[in-house]
Amino acid sequence: MDTESDQQPTRSDRLFTGGERPYDPEDLVMATGADPTPERIQKARQLIEKEGPAVIERFLP
What we know:
61 residues, 3 helices, mainly alpha
């Protein structure tokens, strides 16, 4: 019998934005629709540092 606790979270269940809590570089990568890789996470970290936390707003509907 499947229960909610037995199910894997979906991609959208793991995606957080600044509205719920501060987001991390992995969240920014997933907001772009890409899979988080070490290289993409590093680029996202640099983008957050350069443009600030509001940068994620570009990628959200």
